[in-house]
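User: Hi! Is it possible to get a structure for several chains at once, not just one? Here's what I have:
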Amino acid sequence: MKLAARFLALTVLLFSSQAWAELRVDITQGRVEPMPLAVTEFTGENADAAQIGRQIAQVISADLERSGLFRPIDPKAFIQKQLSMTTLPRFGDWRILNAQALVQGHAVPKGDGQLAIQFRLWDVSAEQQMIGLAYNTVADNWRRVAHIIADAIYQRITGESGYFDTRVVYVAESGPANKRVKRLAIMDQDGANHRFLTDGSDMVLTPRFSPTLQEITYLSYYKNKPRVYLFNIDSGRQAVLGDFPGMTFAPRFSFDGTKVVMSMAQDGNSDIYTMDIATRQTRRLTTHSSIDTSPSYSPDGSQITFNSDRGGSQQIYVMDSNGKNVHRISFGKGNYATPVWSPRGDLIAFTKMTGGKFYIGVMRTDGSGERLLANGYLVESPTWSPNGRVLMFFRETLSRGNKTTKLYSVDLTGYNEREIITPLEASDPAWSPLIP
Amino acid sequence: MRKFLGLVGVVALLAACETAPNDGATATGTGDANATAQKLGPAAGTAQDFVVNVGDRVFFGFDQYSISADARSTLEKQAMWLKKYPSATIVLEGHADERGTREYNLALGERRANAAKEYLVSLGVDGMRVKTISYGKERPVALGHNEAAWAQNRRAVTVVAVGAGS
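Assistant: Yes, the chains can be modeled jointly so their relative placement is included. Here is the combined structure:
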């Protein structure tokens, strides 16, 4: 992605911090009252830098607001209009607004299109700095720096790593259902930098990121031969993955990126195969006459969860990554599908179908502790934020006989459901890891 | 079997050296300018003939891929037709309704296409003439969101390709 290389330096700003009772949001609880905080416009050394500074503050504020954990205070209410990076804020002015945290920053042009972006996070009641950092970057990379700063704030206050410096690949949909046009599309997690990756001439489904974000694996109907492909984002090159006699589908990378696990259908029967990307060697993992599909590796690569109807109905199973020790984990009412292992390793997200409705839910890897987070006429395709705290999925909604398909996110708590705005209708989201 | 030419086939008839059929239409260009054209059925042995006179699709129950009695009857007619026109090849498309998850439905569509194929092969159709493809829930034919539409969409469709000269 080359973006990481754009960062020349990361400087720690001074204002020594010390141990005290810390400002903290506990995100493991059910519903949290969003923490009021003030994100001030980043100042700039010149007009151009100040313009970027204002936009950076807006992106940080929007990221934190969307998380549901923070409530950015309306800047019109701010009392202290001018802040300096070299003097302490007037904490009393911020306490009056009930701001518990304060974010300030400054952009300094460095020539050659480079920009140094400094920021500080303050604990208002303790009157202490929590973070002070500066990023050197090319100026047109300011949006990414804003997400990185939002991640730093999220991490400092919640104790969990963030998820704002990430992307989403998904399927953009248009046209009537009987000749739907489906295109791969990619965007930042906040919808910015949207672009289409394919032109819609071949139907594409179920894209998923490699851990490096360099590649996407997906299903394409190129030449009416449904097969799993790899798409290289930098080069735009697409190549079929493997030489299988039947349809390959439901691909997903292992967390270390060395393998793609998928289904292959032959003579009507679908089984699970894994392929080593480097050697292209394949290994068959299931040999059952049932449908075996939607495989997903555990983060440590030792196990695979998958969807099978081998017990007579569509349920979720877990097996060792060599195909041994297959056992069913879903035992609730109804059918279960699309298991996806959490990046934290502790949970499996799924789609549940019961009573004519669809649900997105999570359960522990032994099947216990089932919780349902979202529902609809159809909800499907859960995908985890890299910190395992948020799920994205798509929902089909019926209104006066018309169906619309859109992306949504919801917290692991089941609260804070948000629509993800896309230019066209959208399905099959896949959330990237943090951009390396 | 008589050869029927559709109205669209009028031009084709003039161009191709087919034996003129004669159920009604005066489509040979020999003269009677006052004659009125009358719509004919599709020519025997064509893909259109297969769709109209044989039936190109069979239906399945929810999450099922077993061949019903109705489906058997349709597939038996398909097998007879395929024996009559041995140069025709077919693609069996398996489809599912919208009330399932995408990847499972791709697998289910594959099962349905294969179940129809196996029945045709059991009736003596050479398996080499039959390809299968699953579209899962991606290509519904009925656009409603009710049981009637879903029942039409849970299907295996036999798409005929007729080689040159057949």
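Residues 1-8, 16-20 of chain A have pLDDT under 50 and may be disordered. Chain A has two domains: 3-158, 167-431.

User: Great, thank you!
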